[in-house]
Amino acid sequence: MAMTHPHDNIRVGAITFVYSVTKRGWVFPGLSVIRNPLKAQRLAE
């Protein structure tokens, strides 16, 4: 599934990183938040 909006969830394989509206970024394991969509996509791969 491709990202059609800048705040979509990022899915790579069976892993999905959810976008948090309150934290304005993607929540990764360990509760770290990445706000740059390109960096989030790269880390998900």
What is the element layout, followed by pairings?
Layout: E1 10-12, E2 15-17, E3 19-20, E4 25-28, E5 32-34, H1 37-44
Antiparallel strand pairs: 1-2, 3-4, 4-5
How much helix is in the residues?
10-25%
Weakly predicted, low-confidence segments: none
In angstroms, what is the radius of gyration?
9 Å
**End-to-end distance, in Å?**
14 Å
Protein name: DUF1317 family protein
Organism: Shigella sonnei
Pfam family, one: DUF1317
Description:
The protein is an alpha+beta fold. It has one domain (10-44). The chain has one helix at residues 37-44, and strands spanning 10-12, 15-17, 19-20, 25-28, 32-34. Strands 3-4-5 form a 3-stranded antiparallel β-sheet. A two-stranded antiparallel sheet has the order 1-2. The longest helix is centred in the last third of the chain and has 8 residues, at 37-44. It starts with 9 loop residues before the first strand and ends with a helix. 4% of the residues are buried.
Q: Could you name the key traits of this structure?
A:
DUF1317 family protein, DUF1317, 5 strands, 45 residues, alpha+beta, two-stranded antiparallel ribbon, 1 helix, 3-stranded antiparallel sheet
